[in-house]
Amino acid sequence: MPVIGHREAGWVLVNDDNTAPKERTYSNLRYDFEYAIDLDSERTWASEGLRIFKPHQRKCYFNGEKVLKYFKFYTKTNCENECLINRTIDVCKCVDFYMPHFESTRICYTETDVECIVETMDWWERRGKKFCNCYPYCSEINYNAYIFGKNRSSTQSRDNEIKNFNVSIYNADEFYTSRENKQSQWTIIDLVASCGGVFGLLCGMSLIGVVEFIYYATIRVISNIIRIRREERRTAD
């Protein structure tokens, strides 16, 4: 950890091994503080019933639905990084030295290139991400890091503080894992069942109406005619 300024001793970045780290996702550390990093995980999985929806409808990807050019494993962060790389190549015709690229791609090194990269990154941070269609995996595990620091004794020299600089990492609550399940509120079976119920109700009402019409149009008329003739015969007798 390099010394930065007068009060900072370095920085710490927590990242899983399948995701390219971001320059802006680190935390500064001060040399006169003692730090502990609290880790926990968040697991998300999705039901197979979500596959009938398109990715932009369910806001996630199943395994193999989206393949990246510059990264072996798909993650939302890797997808956003690749989106930025493609944008940089399209606009600046080169890539920054740390960006994954093919051998035929030129590395940006001129002053004009650097200005173009800065402008592209600013645009991407403000508006570009929404054009990337980078959704998380429907089933994934995310790790969260919480950094806690407390002030150490200020009587020791700065050189001694830096020499004895220490960061402890431990798992919170024996590595607590929160779980979240993604599933659709309506499936095809639910939709068919609901439509079938409504259709059956309408058909039932229609059949009752038909029976009533037949009754009043035929049976009731015939019954009235028979009753009238019987009364006429009784009168004649």
From TrEMBL:
It is a multi-pass membrane protein. One of its GO terms (cellular component) is plasma membrane. Keywords: Ion channel, Ion transport, Membrane, Sodium, Sodium channel, Sodium transport, Transmembrane, Transmembrane helix, Transport. It comes from the Eukaryota. The chain crosses the membrane at residues 191-217. InterPro entries: ENaC. It is found in: Membrane. GO terms for molecular function: ligand-gated sodium channel activity. Belongs to the amiloride-sensitive sodium channel (TC 1.A.6) family. This is Uncharacterized protein. The lineage of its organism: Eukaryota, Metazoa, Ecdysozoa, Arthropoda, Hexapoda.
